[in-house]
Structures are given as structure tokens and as C-alpha cells.
Amino acid sequence: MAVPKKRQSTTRRDKRRAHDAITLPNTIPCPQCGEAKLPHRVCPSCGTYKGRQLLEPKE
Q1: How many alpha carbons lie under 13 Å from residue 45 in its C-beta half-sphere?
Q2: Do residues 43 and 33 make contact, with C-beta atoms less than 8 angstroms apart?
Q3: What pLDDT, on a 0 to 100 scale, did the predictor assign at position 58?
Q4: Residue 52 three-state SS
Q5: Is 27 exposed, middle or buried (0-12, 13-18, 19+ CB in 10 A)?
Q6: Are 32 and 50 in contact (CB under 8 A)?
Q7: How would you write the pLDDT of the chain (59 residues) with one tens digit per residue?
Q8: CB under 8 Å to 23, separation ≥6 — which residues?
Q9: How many CA atoms lie within 13 A of 42 on its CB side?
Q10: Is 59 exposed, middle or buried (0-12, 13-18, 19+ CB in 10 A)?
Q11: CA–CA distance, 11 with 52 (Å, rounded to integer)
Q12: Is residue 10 within a helix (H) or strand (E), and if so which, with residue range?
């Protein structure tokens, strides 16, 4: 079984983990109601997309 000869330094370990951070989703305000929504998706609060009513709004 392969076993490392030397312990990997914390610097090398942390360089590898530098891209593992979780990023927050990019939200934009809805042009109809102003609520935060994901881009290119139907607004969950008012149900509009590109000025068209696609879903019934939540109460």
C-alpha cells in the first residue's frame, strides 16, 4: 500500500483547499415586485418572468 514518506505541510494542504469555499448565490431584485430572485428564473414571490405572469403569486 502506498504511504507518503513525508508529512505534507499545512501550506500545501491549504493551497489545495483554497477553492473549496462555498459562495453565496447571486441574487438580483425582481423588476416587478423588488424581491430578491435568482437571474434567469421565475420570481418565487410574484411569479413573473420577463414581464409575463407565469405562476400564481404566493399568498
Answers
A1: 10
A2: yes
A3: 67
A4: strand
A5: exposed
A6: no
A7: 889 899 999 999 999 999 999 999 999 999 989 999 999 999 988 999 998 999 887 66
A8: none
A9: 12
A10: exposed
A11: 52
A12: helix 10-16
Q: Return the C-alpha cell found at 40.
A: 434567469
**53/31 Cα distance (integer angstroms):** 13
**Any idea where the domains of the chain sit in the sequence?**
26-59
Residue 37: how many other CB atoms lie within 10 Å: 21
Q: Residue 49 region, left (φ>0) first, then alpha (ψ -120 to 50), else beta?
A: beta
Q: Which amino acid is at 8?
A: Q
Specify the pLDDT at position 19: 93
In the numeric block, the cell 420577463 is attached to 50
